[in-house]
Amino acid sequence: MSVLVTQLGVPIPAAPMLILGGTMAAMGQTSYASVVCAAVGATLIADSLWFFTGRAYGRRLLNSLVRFSLSLDTTVRVARNTYERYGAPILTVAKFLPGLGLISAPLLGTTAISVGVFLLWDFIGAVLWAGVWVIGGGALHDQIVQLLLLVRQNGGTIFDAFAVIFVAVLLYRWVRRWQFRRWLAHTRISPEQLDELMRSNEPPLIFDARPRSVREKESHRIAGARPLDLDSPEPIDPELLKRPIVVYCVCPNEATAKRIVNQLHRKNIHHIRALKGGLDAWEKRGYPVEPLPPDFHTAKAHMLEDEGEEGEYTVRARLAK
Asked: Which residues belong to any copy of the Rhodanese domain (predicted)?
């Protein structure tokens, strides 16, 4: 049950229960196969629900998961880029990677992957994931039993131990979210403020940080926005960096924009803001967008960090004309 609840998105760690199941199997109270099969079955049920929900609701569902997830690592961009690089086999290790466990199934639901292929790779991944924790619990059963005895000697129960773990994980994720929102309060710019800035005598330089696959499906942009990639070796015109800079993506929590903003802040470029709510918020406010030009993807903008002397910086990019 804990595995099913976890895979459905509730921030309850399933690993401790699988470890306990492995310990019980090592003590002869159950079998390894039954514990693994139960975990795999629960995983397939939850992932199938996410897969078909993603197929029905598309990016709206993904944005909701990012918005309400307590894990800041859970971003659509990371999952999408990983899937585009490795394909469906990424499901074999997705549950071991922060941010991919929850988002992978609904993300693949938005693609053209067949149900059979998804279930095959998801089954393999579920077996590996459950097997590692269960076998680990069996291998460490002596130490785990000693820990449980220690808990009992101090007047606690196994449920108390799990409650402490759950509260600690929840508190950690809440603190990270609070820190992130505090950062956003000082760094982001609202669509209304951006519109006003674009009408001023000093319009900002706007970067479109959406993945290429998203731009191909939604081929429009904020007027004058330039495509952005973080891995270019080519330098940006220093004169452009004197202008205010605004970055937008499709993640509701601006996680990608935060990465870019922090990167430039470390290079003493502080006049950069992240668009609150991304392109979706801009469109919902009724502000205009324009079609992407034909050369938008071939003339990308890029950024990366260069190590230089103290107090110096180099930002590399290639900008669309």
From this structure: 200-291
